[in-house]
C-alpha cells in the first residue's frame, strides 16, 4: 500500500533529515560566535585580461571552523543572511576592499576589486549613504570597486533596485551581474539597469570549447555584452583550452584556477607584480603568478 511505502520512505529519510537539520542548527550557533572569535578571513582571486595580466581580484569570504575546518560560503552565507550577520560581514569586506584599493593607489592604480553583495546588505535603508561615506573616508575612486549582484537580487523589486543602483552608479560604483545566465535575467534588465559587467557563470565555461552548446552560449553572452557595451569576466576558467577559447572570443576578463586560486588577501597583495612588471605579459616572465 501507498501508506506503507510512505512510512518506509519516511523511516528511511527522517534520521538523515534530522541530522542535517541538527547540523545546520549547530553550524548556525557556531556562526554566531565566529565573528567574535575572529574565524573569518577575506580571500582574493585574481582576474586577468586576455594576455594574462592581472586586472583585479574578486574578494571571497572564508570561515575557518575550529573543528570542521573551512566551511564553504555556499553553506554559511545563507545562514549569515538568516541571522543578519551578513550585514557585518558584508560591511567588513567592503571596508577592506576600499582600504586595500587606497593602499594600492600609488603602485597599482589600475586594479579593481569586486565584492559580492548580499540582497540584505543592498536593501539596507542607508546603504547608499554608507557607501558614500566609506568612499569618502578612504578616498578611493569609486570606479575601482565593482559590486557583484545576482540575478535574483536584480529581479526582486526591480523598480526599487534600478533606482538604488542608479544612486550608487552616480557615486561612481560599477555593477556586475554574477553567475550570469543561471537565474531569471532577461534582456529587458540588461537594457534597463545601469550595468558595467557580466560574469559568465562557471557552469557554461566548464565544457568549453568541447561542447557545442556551451560554446554557443558563451559566444552569445559575449556578443550581447559587446553590443551593449558591457565588460565581461568569465569565471571558473580551469584549463588553458578554456582560456584560449575565451581570449579568442574577446572576453576581456578571465578568472579561475588556471590563473590562480583564491588566497588570503595579504598573500595576494604580496604576490602582486610590482612596478612595470605588472604591465608585462604573464607569458614573458617566469616569476609571474600563473
Ligand atoms: P561567486 O561569487 O560566483 O564566486 C565564484 C566562486 O567560484 C568562488 O567560490 C570561487 O572560489 C570559485 N571558483 C573560482 N575559480 C574557480 C574555478 O576555476 N573552478 C571552480 N570550480 N570554481 C572556481 P566560493 O569562494 O566558494 O564562493 C561561493 C559563493 O559564495 C560566491 O560565488 C558568492 O556567491 C558567495 N560569497 C563569497 N564571498 C561572499 C561575500 O563576501 N559576500 C556574499 N554576499 N557572498 C559571498
Ligand atoms: Mg562573485
Ligand atoms: Mg559567480
Ligand atoms: Mg557562484
TrEMBL record:
The residue ranges of the EAL domain are 24-276
Q: According to its UniProt record, where is this protein located?
A: Membrane
Report what the protein is called: EAL domain-containing protein
